[in-house]
Every structure is written in C-alpha cells, then in structure tokens.
From TrEMBL:
Alphabetized UniProt keyword annotations: Cell membrane, Membrane, Protein transport, Transmembrane, Transmembrane helix, Transport
Alphabetical list of InterPro entries matching this protein: ExbD
Cell compartments where the protein resides: Cell membrane
Family from the record: Belongs to the ExbD/TolR family.
Superkingdom of source: Bacteria
Record organism: Trinickia symbiotica
Protein name as it appears in the record: Biopolymer transporter ExbD
MF terms in GO: transmembrane transporter activity
Length: 139
C-alpha cells in the first residue's frame, strides 16, 4: 500500500510527463540516423539537360462572335444556324478537338448566345469558353 504524505488524494497533478515524448523523439532520431546514409548512397550520374517540347500540338481555337442583333460570325465571317452547326460538327471530329471561344456583345440577348451554346453541344464540342473584357480600373 502506498502512503501519501502531505498531499490529498483529490489534488490534480499539474506537471507534464515528458518521458514518453523523449522516448519517441530518441527513436525517431535513431531511425533518421540509420536511414540517411542509405538515401545518400546512389550512383553518381550526370543527367542530360534537355528542354521538354510538347508532343501534342494545340489546335487553333474557333472564334464565334455574336453581335447585339443576334448575327453569328465564325472567325469574322457571318454564318447562319445550319452552317454554324455543320462547321462545328466538322471541327468536333478533328484530333485534338479545338476549343470554341464565344464573344458576345454586352447588349446581346441571352437567347442568341444560348443558340450558339446549343449548337456546340449538338456538334459534340467539349470545351466552350466565353471571352470577356476586364473592367476598367476604378469600376
């Protein structure tokens, strides 16, 4: 049986026991000291210095503009809806598939932009982006 002198049994011990922490740190230190020489013993090589060139060429993107009246332009040439769909279908089968960039006038109704997006979807175009202009400073 243990006997306590001058302390009550209900008193909480406020000291931190650091013995387990020191034990863990010593084990980690020994592990690192053992594994560091293994990591540094490699075959000395002079690796070639080459610049990496991409193997896949980026296709030219397709620019589609929609003015405020709803007229659609394919790379600055006006096209109607059936011609737009036919051209998009022809572009969608090329490898790699080009991206479509849609530029719409600020005053264009969403309906006209939606028709272009629907045509892209029907043609199987995977990437469609909207081109915007950043606001001027102070706006």
């Amino acid at each position: 049986m243990a006997m306590s002198v001058g302390e009550s049994d209900d008193e909480v011990m406020s000291d931190i026991n650091t013995t387990p922490l020191v034990d863990v740190m010593l084990v980690l230190l020994i592990i690192f000291l053992i594994t560091i020489p293994v990591v540094t013993h490699t075959v000395p090589l002079q690796l070639p210095k080459e610049r990496v060139h991409p193997l896949q060429t980026q296709p030219k993107s397709i620019e589609i503009a929609v003015n405020r009246d709803g007229d659609v332009f394919w790379n600055e040439a006006r096209v109607d809806a059936p011609t737009l769909l036919a051209r998009l279908k022809a572009a969608s089968v090329s490898t790699p598939q080009p991206e479509v960039h849609v530029r719409g006038d600020q005053e264009t109704r969403y309906e006209f932009i939606g028709r272009v997006i629907t045509a892209c979807e029907r043609a199987g175009i995977a990437k469609v982006s909207f081109i915007t202009q950043p606001p001027a400073r102070g706006e």
